[in-house]
Each structure stands twice: as C-alpha cells, then as structure tokens.
Amino acid sequence: MHPPTHFLESLPTAPSEDPLPSIGQRRNSSEGRTALLQACRQTPTTSSHGPSGKVRAENAEQRLRESEDRFEKIFLCCPESVSIARLSDGTLLEINDAFLEWTGHERDQVLGKPSLEIDLWKDPGDRKKFVDELKENRSLRNYEAEFKHKNGAPIEVLISAEIVSFEQETCILAIARDITERKRMLNALRFDEERYKFALAGSTDGIWDWNLKTGEVYYSDRFRELLGFSTAEFPNRIESWLDHLHPDDREGAWGRIQDCLNSNNQYEDEFRIRTKWDDYLWFKSRGQAHCDSKGIPIRMIGSVQDRTEKKRVEQALQESEERFRKYFDLDLVGMAISTTDLNWVEYNKHFCDLLGYTMGEIEKLSWSDLI
Questions:
Q1: pLDDT tens, 329-362?
Q2: What is the CATH number of the domain that holds 141?
Q3: What is the value of pTM for the model shown?
C-alpha cells in the first residue's frame, strides 16, 4: 500500500539545471482559500494570428482549464494527505482536508506556518534528512517518516514528494499516507512470530504445516530431531511422512487425514514412523484443517508427540494383565480382588471352594463377613 502518485507522476522530471515544474493557483471566493489547479502549466507556443491560430489557442486554453479542474479535484478529494510547503523553511502554503483529518489541526492554524513551528515532525532533525534526500534525488517515492498528531500521538507515514515551483517559489509537493495501524499490525505479527518460534523451541512436540495448494509441508526442527533426519533427508513434502510410516499404519493414517479434510473435524491419530536408525517410534498426532471462504480445505496444521515410552509401558501392562488373567482363570490357587471398602471386584472358583461357598453365595458376602 503506497500513496497514490498518479498526479505527482504527471509532473515532468527534469535535470537539476532545467526549470522546475510549476503549479498554478487561483482563489476560491466561496471558501476563501487557495485551490490548486494544475501541474506543469505550459504556455502554448502556437501562433494565435488568424482564425486557425485563434481556434488552436482556444482549444489549448480549454485543455488547460480541464487539466486545472482535474488537478483541483484530485488535490481536494484525495483520501491521502496532500500538501505544498516551501522548500527553504517548510512553510505550509496549501493542504487538503485529509492532512487536517489525520494531524488534528485546523486549516487556519497551519497555513502560512513552518511545519517545525506546528510541531509536525516527531524529530525535527528528520525534516532536514528528508529535504536533503529530496534535493539530491529531485523526487522521492515511499519515504518512511514519523509525524506527530496535534495531541502528541505519533503518526507513521509513507511520503511521495516532488520539488516544484508554486507562486514563484521552490516548494515541495508531497502526498503522505498514514501507515500507523499497518505498522502496529506488522509489529504485532512480528512479536507473535517470535513468540511462536520461542514456543516451538521449548516444545517437546514436533509441528507440521501442510499447504494443500502447493503440496509443501513445513516440518519443524523438533519434528526432524525426533526422527534423526536433516532437511535434505526429510524434505518439505507430504511423501516424506508417508514413505516413513510403518507399512501396517500407512493406509489407515492416510485415510484419517482424508476424513479430516472431508469433514473439517479435529484430526487425531497414532502411528509409527521409521527413524534414521531404521527403528520405529510411536507418535500421537493432532491437527485441524483450515478452509477458504468457499469451505475448501487449503491448509492443515498439527503436531506430533513421541508416545513410544508410553506405548512400551502400556504394552508391558497389557502383558502383565494377560498373565494375571491366565493364572486367575486356571484356578490353580484361590484369588480374589476387592475394593478398599471390602466389596468384591472379582474372585475365581478355587477361592470359593477353599472357603466352602458357591460363587453365587459368596457374591452376597463381603470380606468383613468372612473375617
């Protein structure tokens, strides 16, 4: 987003020894203020002697009036701040309404006064830098500066400017765009990105971000670190993940990804991935698809968490339970399980036989009845 420069660019650029482009002016009696009329007023060189010359002169005058009217409308209606200031001391000779709106000043408070006197520049030294660069280049485009609102609030601006002649004086014609909010948003975004990177660096989870339009997948450093791969060994494409999935998990894992994209539901899955050392680690992955305005998925973001140790513990517990169940059901010894308040959870037939009860009878009793 840059300030509109279409009427600045209508001013002819000239070497420093050439005459400056001139801007005419006239008085608007209804408002009592100066309105700009044209850039680069040029006197017709065609002779006006004779009927044909008179017609040409009239046509030239008509074109001049039309040019003046266009420039006046652009100046007054431009949504960006437009000003003309004396080059030597910054005295403001003409401003539009947008200038007043975003600086908070009244017209009669600023016209005829130097910009430094009305405290327009946040740092007065910045005007000198701006003028020096403008003198050197004769024009500037998208020059960043910082102004001050009447209430003291900073205003970040983007300026495009030309050196022109106005009322026989060397002046600066400038268009400025208020980019304060844009700069604030950019700074906030930069802060969020830094915070995000910090969170990634401290996280034990790997992050993946899949661009469904380009097919590219961002894998965080932690993601690759968990698997032992470099970027070259595990490039940013979906095939890197698919090719390293355990053969028994590949079809199901891909199917659950497709289910998420088709339903836009939360994604969650567990699968095994082959590491650089050719062993397999268990991972739990969570994610979410993001859609465009038409509801078409364009991006999917998620995380992976190493679940290998938990899986090992779960497997060991399952094997232990299976062994216990095997001995429990064999009835080689009497076995019973109860809650802390002495109610039965489970018991085997051998336990009932040892106490002389049937399984139906002992169900009506508790440990306290047997003690």
A1: 777 788 888 888 888 888 888 888 888 898 888 8
A2: 3.30.450.20
A3: 0.46
